[in-house]
Amino acid sequence: MDKGATPADARSFVVTNRSVLAIAVPMTLAYLTTPMLGLVDTAVVGQFGDAALLGGLAAGALIFDVVFTTFNFLRSGTTGLVAQAFGRGDELEEQAVFWRAVLIAVVAGIVLAALAPLVAVAGQKFMGAEPRVSEAMGVYIRIRLLAAPFSLINYAILGYVLGRGEGGLGLMLQLVLNGINIALCFLLGLKLGWGVAGVAWATVTGEFLAMLLGLAIVVRRFRAAPSLPRHRLLDMAAFLRMLSLNRDIMIRSFSLLAAFALFTRQGAQFGTVTLAANAVLMNFFLVAGYFLDGFATAAEQLAGRAVGAGAATPFRQAVRLTLFWGFGLAGAATLIFWLGGAGLVALVTTSLDVRAVADIYLPWAALTPLSGVLAFQMDGVFIGATWSRDMRNMMLLSFLVFSGALLTLAPTFGNHGLWAALHVFLLARGFSLLTILRLRVRTAFS
Fold this sequence. Notes:
The protein is mainly α. Helices cover about 85% and strands about 0% of the residues. Mean pLDDT is about 85; it is low at about 1-10.
């Protein structure tokens, strides 16, 4: 298990291919378990051969992602702040950041779980899908939101681990979480025939057990470290900084999910079969995204550590090397999806109609790794450096560009136009952040 660097060498370090891969490889494997879970969920429900159930699962998962990814700041914000404290060699602040994140997670999680029925109704009204699709979506949301407190605490745990660059430990925690989830998904959803409800209960159980394991590991570590004074934990200035960072990341995440919500909603307007086909193909995009997220996570930790240490050279090395590896792997992912995507579509769903439509739009999904790699890597750099305001503003700009593309292309070219608008969105995110990066580097290290 990784232990990260020691306080003695926290301020002086060189970013190499090895240091990038030490974080990126285990976290790529870890993140890949999440879209694999999505593929399993879709495949389990897809075995019932009912496009309405498959569409309901996709719509429910989207609403869930809109809610939970909005709170992803508990992972990414914690990573950036812990990485900077690590770069300064400040062990007490690492602990303080973690417990502040857990406190926010507990409060927010309880509120979300209590609001599950309202979220389900709002989601059904927003999607405006067929009655059977809406029914399946409501069941999924009401059950899965019960895991909200556990899920958000797991975000905080993972954020702390990644902030210290402990990719091996992060991999182990994600394998436990998603391994339990996948096993129970087959048991409850398919073998016991619970369908969509079984998939949702599998998630609740997996999140709870992973939370217990993660807390046990972190608390045991803190017991061997210097004791955290209460006034350090409740430092109002540090709390306000964390809330400001989290606010910006939340707005960014909500804008991102709003774009995906519009994408799914527009797909629903093209019919249930097209909605289901897009859901299958979006799993490919998620696989690529989590694949690239391993290197974005390396950028978060290394860039944040460099900012904390005031080290410009390692910062530039982190940006250059994570982009190099990211583009290489994006090209490989595109090639794999292009050549093997049809077989994966057939594996995921037994519906011949869904397969036929998905095959038509497969090339669009296969190209998403290349159009999205710069956005993923720039997000990692800006999160680690805690330049959250810039990231928020560029995301809002990109969302406006996406909305314009959607309104222009989808009515004219149908589902082809919908996928083209998604690519425009990804490219706008990446190049807008790259444009502003040089200015931020000059001001941060001057």
